[in-house]
Write the structure tokens for this entry.
Amino acid sequence: MNASAALLPATANPTVDEGRWLSSDHCAAPVFDLLHALDWSVVDTPEANCHATSPDGHVYVGWLPEDSSAWQRNIVWQIRVQPTEGVAWVQEFGVRTPSEAVSGFLAALVAHSSS
């Protein structure tokens, strides 16, 4: 699941006068732009949910804006990781989490992957 540094977001070194913070616009594009660039398999459902799997099959990303069980838990993003060795884990993000933050999380996950 290694990725070229050119595909990953650049490291930001903010200055004091950069006071604009991200806010959620409920758009999944930053995440799926990254995943498409990394050649992940992406499937859209008729219900407008999207599911992606890493090329090695160890990571799943779900964008679940129309999944009632996800909404009941107040999430819209689900990331599941099944390492080659070790225990599987899940990270979920709510509707107010900016997609750029989810994309940054995934970029860090890919950059620090050993597989």
In short: The beta strands are 41-44, 50-53, 59-63, 77-81, 89-93. The chain has a mean pLDDT of 86.
